[in-house]
What we know:
single chain, 3-stranded antiparallel β-sheet, elongated, N-terminal cleavage protein
Amino acid sequence: MFIELILISLSFKIGLISYKSYKSLIESAKAQDSFDDALLNIDRLLKTQMIKSIEIEEKGLSNNGKITIKYKVDHNTNEIKEKRIFLDNTNQKIVLETYKEGKRKGVNVIMREVSDFAIIKKEKLYYLKIKNNKGEERVLCL
């Protein structure tokens, strides 16, 4: 009976430790997924075939940096669509705004819980550094 009690308590402790580890891994995976999704979305936007121009504003005193991408809407017309990627400081999220003919047509959230969105220039290359509220950061070469 005593041996059974020891085995049951050990089994319970192992189960509890396993559950706690599983829960922390799930939280970590959710945070990493949002990073991966944001970087893939930004990378996809910067490598589309219909791009006419890309303007990059580095981090300054008044802002955290902004990426403006101008696309041709159609190969046969000269109509331009503009997309802006920047950090909304008040809501701590990376935002994608779409403009057509100078009017804002849509707003999408690329990533939430972002503390820093910095564009840094080193020699001829630009780097985008994103840092979340938990202190994790990723860098993407633009």
